[in-house]
User: What shape does this take?
Amino acid sequence: MNILRVDETSDLLGDYRDLTDVALRRRLEPENGLYMAESSKVLSRALAAGHAPRSVMTAEKWLGDVERILGESARQDTPVYVVPDEVAEQVTGYTVHRGMLAAMNRPAYRPVADVLAELAAHGRTRIAVLENLVDHTNVGACFRSAAAMGVDAVLVTPRCADPLYRRSVRVSMGTVFQVPWTRIESWPAGMSELQEAGYVVAGLTLGEGAIELDDLVAEQHGRLALVLGTEGHGITAHTDRRLDRRVTIPMAGGVDSLNVAAASAVAFYATR
Assistant: This one.
């Protein structure tokens, strides 16, 4: 194993610097072609998905776990920086308590057409579109629900928060590596690509003309794309005009709507 013990802050740990500065990391990670994987479970799932680590930072007590995980993936040559807890906190800006952090090479986005073609080849018929979600926790939770409920792929719009941001990955429990996903470059214009591929595009909304979720299920569409809009305002007006179906989840108890992550779980379960 390529183990390097680092007892003070060093340029070797540059990828891990200032992880609590969200605005900085949102800019630097995509620009530098990396993302962070935190915890043994997340790192294992990233490696299982074929993602390549640049390095791993860990404490001495977790070194055995890191060696096992990297060994199982034939990544023994990956630099492993073993640091004291206080050095990890100085570099990252928080107390690292999940065993390990890995700086991973960010994979290139796949064209939407390639994702749709792969789904068609395997007879998979259900996708989710996350439109302009800004909260990384919600993005991660939607991915976890998608994985749990068997959604075949997720598309994220250009203004949607990064599914590979550390908090998204952590909240998803690493399922962002299990569910095929990519960014749809033009939205809502790109909706036509889904429709031409045979998908009925249904947006979850409180707007007029919405049918109930059970009614959508009863229609038994062969290919279905579920659009979930941003926190607060929901689906944009431009998107709403292009939808094939407007769908609502019936509410009781004086509640008008659910958080987008909760709504995703309900919709994914109902349409499974």
About this structure: The domain at 112-270 is CATH 3.40.1280.10 (Alpha/beta knot). The longest strand covers residues 53-58. Residues 136-148 form the longest helix (13 residues).
